[in-house]
């Protein structure tokens, strides 16, 4: 016989608490996911505070599958006006309307006076609806402004660059461009100097791009690094040093010789030891014990030591937000420690079977940011030197910039 027991008071309290928390979570979730009313998001000004004679604007973003007639109806464009607009569009300008275009409806009081279809920061189509209807393409004046900045490091590169007014995005790009040669955490010293020339696009006085570096120089412990932007006929936009070498560095696709691939990159692999589906996020190279392992590219050792399943492991941080990992090593190159610089091809360790390994092999991973990619298939950075035919053109650009820089007197912070 099963006796009926009163549920203990603790249980009642916890059930109550759990449901309360659950309801609360659902409530938060609803709050977060609730779509904002479109009109509220798109009003550019608060209409309620406008006297009726002042021009006011409503902005609408064209969504997929939306037609002009539906939008016009939605925005209470008088039928008569809508009809005239369609009739007037002899050059078929309105057929270029696309999802993502912004439409700005301008009113004085209740009267619609114009509709501007904004294609981008520069181009728009202006429909005037007051009195006579007119439709025309409008191109706003754009301007490219060049800026020059020079500084000396007293604190950190980021702080000092920011102090002299270099925008954050340019600072990040600068560190990225030189990230193949300079580690901005380990390498930077007091007294290092930097210079940058960059351009920013403005349209009608408004900044429309975060800027692009044309030229950059970094003097680090008496090494001088130069990067000149150049549009190479073959590779597109690249940065090259004064010799025309690409600032990006190359990678070896396989970090060892005399090996064969024993297991490919495979997100759905059955693990040979654990016997369950476990992603294989690298490539395995079967090789004899003590086969030398090379650094796949220039970089800085960011880890050397043991990682549970991986055994003896080395990680190298490269430029371009790339990291490579080498696991199951028999032994390390003893001279390496965190922060050591390595060149492509330097021997960093030797093949073994430390950690969880079925046989002697190298497990090799290629990280781009937080994502592991297939080292066999990944598109490696294009790191070719400049197209030879274009070298004279490149050299004269570079000299112009060096000239400009020498004329610019820097403000130095002590
Ligand atoms: Zn593996």
Task: Describe the 3D structure.
This protein is an alpha+beta fold and 414 residues long. It has three domains: 101 residues, Nuclear Transport Factor 2, Chain: A (Roll), CATH 3.10.450; 141 residues, Nuclear Transport Factor 2, Chain: A (Roll); 114 residues, Glucose Permease (Domain IIA). The chain contains seven helices and 21 strands. The strands form three sheets. Strands 12, 13, 14, 15, 16, 17, 18, 19, 20 and 21 form a ten-stranded antiparallel beta sheet that branches. Strands 6, 7, 8, 9, 10 and 11 form a six-stranded antiparallel beta sheet that branches. A five-stranded antiparallel beta sheet has the order 1-2-3-4-5, with no helix packed on it. A hairpin with a 2-residue loop joins strand 20 and strand 21. The longest helix has 25 residues. It starts with 8 loop residues before the first helix and ends in a 7-residue tail after the last helix. Bound molecules: zinc ion.
Please tag this protein with its features.
alpha+beta; Nuclear Transport Factor 2, Chain: A; Glucose Permease (Domain IIA); ten-stranded antiparallel beta sheet; 7 helices; 21 strands; extended; disordered N terminus; disordered C terminus; binds zinc ion
Summary, kept brief:
This protein is an alpha+beta fold and 414 residues long. It has 7 helices and 21 strands.
The end-to-end span amounts to 88 Å
Structure class: alpha+beta
From the 3D structure, determine the CATH topology of the largest domain.
Answer: Nuclear Transport Factor 2, Chain: A
Report the sheet with the most strands, covering strand number, pairing sense and barrel closure: 10 strands, antiparallel
Number of helices: 7
The low-confidence runs, each spanning 5 or more residues with pLDDT under 50, are: 1-7, 11-52, 410-414
């Amino acid at each position: 016989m099963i006796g009926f027991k009163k549920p203990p008071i603790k249980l009642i309290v916890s059930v109550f608490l759990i449901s309360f928390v659950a309801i609360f979570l659902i409530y938060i979730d609803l709050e977060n996911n609730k779509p904002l009313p479109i009109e509220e998001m798109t009003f550019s000004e608060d209409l309620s505070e406008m006297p009726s004679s002042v021009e006011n604007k409503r902005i609408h973003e064209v969504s997929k599958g939306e037609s002009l007639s539906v939008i016009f109806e939605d925005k209470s464009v008088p039928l008569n006006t809508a009809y005239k607009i369609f009739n007037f569009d002899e050059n078929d300008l309105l057929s270029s309307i696309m999802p993502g275009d912004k439409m700005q409806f301008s009113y004085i009081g209740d009267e619609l006076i114009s509709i501007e279809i904004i294609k981008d920061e520069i181009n728009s189509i202006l429909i005037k609806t007051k009195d006579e209807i007119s439709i025309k393409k409008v191109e706003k004046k754009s301007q490219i402004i060049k800026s020059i900045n020079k500084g000396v490091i007293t604190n950190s590169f980021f702080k000092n660059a920011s102090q002299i007014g270099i925008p954050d995005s340019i600072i990040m790009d600068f560190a990225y461009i030189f990230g193949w040669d300079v580690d901005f955490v380990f390498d930077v010293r007091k007294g290092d100097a930097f210079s940058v020339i960059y351009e920013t696009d403005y349209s009608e006085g408004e900044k429309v791009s975060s800027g692009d570096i044309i030229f950059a120089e970094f003097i680090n412990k008496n090494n001088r690094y130069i990067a000149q932007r150049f549009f190479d006929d073959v590779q597109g936009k690249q940065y090259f040093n004064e010799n025309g070498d690409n600032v990006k560095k190359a990678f070896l696709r396989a970090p060892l010789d005399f090996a064969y691939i024993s297991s490919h990159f495979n997100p759905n692999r059955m693990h040979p030891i654990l016997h369950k589906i476990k992603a294989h996020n690298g490539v395995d190279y079967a090789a004899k014990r003590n086969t030398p392992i090379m650094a796949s590219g220039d970089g800085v050792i960011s880890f050397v030591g043991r990682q549970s399943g991986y055994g003896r492991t080395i990680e190298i941080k490269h430029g371009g937000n790339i990291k490579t990992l080498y696991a199951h090593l028999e032994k390390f190159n003893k001279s390496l420690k965190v922060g050591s610089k390595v060149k492509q091809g330097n021997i960093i360790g030797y093949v073994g079977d430390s950690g969880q390994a079925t046989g002697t092999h190298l497990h090799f991973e290629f990280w781009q940011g937080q994502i592991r990619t297939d080292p066999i298939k990944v598109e490696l950075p294009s790191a070719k030197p400049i197209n030879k035919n274009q070298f004279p053109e490149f050299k004269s650009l570079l000299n112009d910039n060096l000239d400009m820089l020498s004329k610019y007197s820097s403000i130095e912070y002590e």
